[in-house]
Amino acid sequence: MKNYIKIILLVFTFSCQKENKKVLEGKWIFVSNYNIPHYTLDGFEEPPLPPKNDLGFNFFSKDSCEANSIFYNLKSLDVDYYRESFGRKTVFKIDKDSLKIFDRSLNKWTCYKIMSLDESNLVLNYNDIQLKNYVKILKN
Predict the structure, then answer these.
(1) pLDDT confidence tier of residue 92, bands split at 50, 70 and 90
(2) Which range marks the domain in which residue 88 is found?
(3) What Rg, from alpha-carbon coordinates, does the chain have?
(4) Least C-beta-crowded within 10 Å: which of 46, 72, 91, 133?
(5) For the segment 56-70, what is each residue's pLDDT rounded down to a tens digit?
(6) Long-range contact list for 123-129, CB < 8 A, 24+ apart?
(7) Burial class (CB in 10 A: 0-12, 13-18, 19+), 105
(8) pLDDT band at 14 (very low <50, low <70, confident <90, very high)
(9) Alpha-carbon 120 to chain mean position
(10) At 107, which CATH number?
(11) Where on the tree of life does the source sit, at the highest rank (predicted)?
(12) Rounded CA separation 132/129 (Å)
């Protein structure tokens, strides 16, 4: 009986991940963010993250996406007149309730917890520091 329950849970988990990928497909534009306050042991509020241009994402069907900011080779930033660009395309994966997007500049995965996802709205939690809201551009 326990094995049947495990199988049903596995099927349910994988079907939800496929559904999330299908809903995620499309162009998402950044709307707003909310900095979650954090406090030091002394009770002082820590400063929020510095502002960053966040223009959204464009998710494709084959686990690839396009960030609306450009990835750069950080080694090329030592030279003032030349910056090597990796472009905007990268890969992503959904693992349970997490969205992982590969940062080609830093050569590591950036993880977001999916707080809410439906046909037109996406809310991501970035390291319990920021909540980021995105809206999907719907095709006519």
Answers:
(1) very high
(2) 2-136
(3) 18
(4) 46
(5) 888 988 888 888 676
(6) 124/99, 128/36, 128/38, 129/35, 129/36, 129/38, 129/48, 129/49
(7) middle
(8) very low
(9) 16
(10) 2.40.128
(11) Bacteria
(12) 10
